[in-house]
Amino acid sequence: PTGLVETETWLQEIGKYFHKEDKAAELIQQEKARFHKDLGVLRPFLAGKRVIINTLDKDIAWLVDIIEQAEMVLQAINIFTLIPEDGKGRSEDNLGISHRPGLTMKKRASLTEIEEQVKEAKPQLCLSFYPLELDLPGTAFSTIPMVPRAGVNGALGIVKEWARLLRSSKLKMQSVKLR
After folding, report:
1. Where does the pLDDT of residue 178 fall: very low under 50, low under 70, confident under 90, or very high at 90 and above?
2. What gap in Å lies between CA 7 and CA 60, rounded to an integer?
3. Please, which residues bridge with residue 76 across strands?
4. What is the Cα–Cα distance from 47 to 63, expressed in whole angstroms?
5. Percent above pLDDT 90 for the chain
6. Other C-beta atoms within 10 Å of 70: how many?
7. 166 has pLDDT over 70
8. Residue by residue, what is the 3-state secondary structure of the chain?
9. Which residue of 28, 104, 130, 135 is surrounded by the most CB atoms within 10 Å?
């Protein structure tokens, strides 16, 4: 499991399997408290920041969850379609986020198309499963791990990296303005 929601579900299932629901509930409360405490420290660096996700046909529910929990603004999700769809399923359905109204998701056929959209939207944080070679002042770039770190610690580690990138991106912008 990755992130708070998946970790909570996982602990509940383990608690049921071993008939230790009370112990699982206790662990969930501990994890939630620690998660919210640690995220609270990082939130001032993240809240309100605009984010774009560039993804493949892969479940990113955990990623959208952590963006929402950090109170960031998810501008768009670009789905890079490497293989044409066969009509049996939609790539959007594989993202694990189809139940979230208001999310802008768009299929993109090329990296050039994605880069143009990112340049136009000017997010403060651009997350991708593949590196984008863009020089976009004011935008920090980070890759999305193909195999994210497990549990609450994994999600918090990723969020700490975003906060560091956003702080350094802001400092770079300030130094450019001083010149």
Report:
1. very low
2. 15
3. 52
4. 15
5. 50
6. 20
7. yes
8. CEHHHHHHHHHHHHHHHCCCHHHHHHHHHHHHHHHHHHHHHHHHHHCCCEEEEEECCCCCHHHHHHHHHCCCEEEEEEEECCCCCCCCCCHHHHHCCCCCCCCCEEEECCHHHHHHHHHHHCCCEEEECCCCCCCCCCCEEEECCCCCCCHHHHHHHHHHHHHHHHHHHHHHHHHHHHC
9. 28
Residue that the structure tokens 């603004």 belong to: 73
The answer to whether the CB of 77 falls within 8 A of the CB of 104 is: yes
Q: How many CB atoms lie within 10 A of CB 136?
A: 16
Burial (0-12, 13-18, 19+ Cβ within 10 Å), 137: exposed
Neighbours of 19 (CB within 10 A): 8
**Calpha distance 179→50 (Å, rounded):** 26
